[in-house]
Design a protein that fits this description.
Oligomer: single chain
CATH superfamily of the largest domain: P-loop containing nucleotide triphosphate hydrolases
Number of strands: 12
CATH architecture of the largest domain: 3-Layer(aba) Sandwich
Distance between the termini: 48 Å
CATH topology of the largest domain: Rossmann fold
Number of domains: 2
Radius of gyration: 20 Å
CATH class of the largest domain: Alpha Beta
Largest sheet: 12 strands, mixed
Strand content: 15-25%
């Protein structure tokens, strides 16, 4: 273990405990937005499946007839301040201006407004006052306690062993595991089946005794880069696939491809939220040809970042995999929690 990280990690955990203490006792102010707010967040950094869960919850409220807005920080965007990514009819900015995940959500959640702002209170107020939002879905909001919320949902991957995790920078936790007790609902994600979800829920009882539900993620369809037409996943069966991605959990993507029956002959990873250069794309095309692969395959989030440069991949067949979130166990607990806000 790096001795410096061994010192910094408990120090960071202590700072987060003190910060939470200040919010719990009103030393730090929480600002109420005046409309229902659902926060969807993590205890750890990345890889929980937050984006498809935010999409599922947003779609749920849209189906109930509520004007819904997603408010996000817009991580890794090149802009500052408030940016309206969508007013409900698809993205009006690109990933560089709005962030890859907010643009992806704007593409998938037709009818929902999407706003990015490092000041989530300001972004939520704009969504309410200028875009007419009746409910806010706060993306990655668990630690952003300055913005008030009516429902705090925390995601935990099915295989996560909290007792083995350390706080940043030594580990992946944003705060100590005890922080999970603030959640109104714990959503166990990336569950392979109901048995795995139930086992995970039992395992975390030493940290959390509140409501829990389980959610899985399933491949929904393929799309060629630049196309809006879905294709069946078995379109690629029998073909040699060159996979690549720049996400928090690349092995999860690779495993998903293998489980859908795809032959992943080559696989290349990049940092999370990576912005691909022209040289890197040319190298990818060359690697596909040199490895005698038939197609390139990436994630939907990567496809958003590739939107302005996808023509550089025209010499090869390039696809992305669309995923969808599916409630797996105790779905009634999740919907009951969401429905409480309909009466708020």
């Amino acid at each position: 273990m790096n001795p410096v990280l061994g010192i910094l990690s408990p120090a960071y955990a202590s700072v987060m405990r003190m910060r939470n203490w200040c919010y719990n006792r009103g030393v730090f102010k929480t600002y109420e937005i005046g409309i229902p707010v659902v926060s969807v967040g993590n205890l750890s950094v990345g890889g929980t499946g937050k984006t498809p869960v935010v999409e599922w919850i947003t779609r749920y409220y849209l189906e109930q007839g509520l004007r819904t807005a997603i408010v996000s920080r817009g991580y890794k965007r090149e802009t500052k301040g408030t940016v309206i990514v969508s007013s409900g009819e698809g993205p009006i900015v690109d990933a560089a201006q709005g962030g890859d995940e907010p643009v992806q959500l704007a593409l998938r959640c037709n009818g929902a407004s999407v706003v990015v702002d490092e000041n989530r209170v300001r972004g939520a107020q704009l969504a309410k006052e200028e875009l007419g939002a009746e409910l806010i879905v706060l993306d990655d909001g668990f630690q952003h306690r300055r913005c008030g919320r009516n429902l705090d949902i925390v995601l935990l991957p099915c295989g996560e062993q909290l007792e083995e995790q350390r706080v940043l920078p030594l580990g992946r936790l944003r705060e100590a595991a005890e922080g999970i007790q603030r959640a109104d609902l714990l959503l166990v994600t990336r569950c392979s089946d109901e048995r795995a979800a139930d086992a995970a829920q039992q395992r975390i009882r030493k940290y959390y005794s509140g409501d829990t539900a389980g959610m899985s993620f399933s491949p929904a369809a393929l799309r060629q880069l630049g196309s809006e037409d879905d294709q069946a996943i078995d379109t690629l069966h029998g073909k040699r696939v060159f996979g690549f991605c720049g996400i928090a959990n690349p092995e999860e993507f690779k495993q998903t491809c293998l489980e859908t029956g795809l032959e992943v002959a080559e696989f290349r990873t990049f940092p999370d939220h990576h912005r691909y250069t022209h040289d890197e794309l040319r190298e990818l095309v060359k690697a596909v040809v040199d490895s005698k692969c038939d197609v390139l395959l990436t994630t939907e989030k990567d496809a958003v970042r590739l939107a302005d440069s996808s023509k550089m991949l025209d010499s090869v067949q390039a696809y992305y995999l669309r995923m969808e979130a599916l409630p797996l166990v105790h779905a009634e607990i999740l919907t009951r929690a969401l429905n409480r806000l309909l009466r708020a």
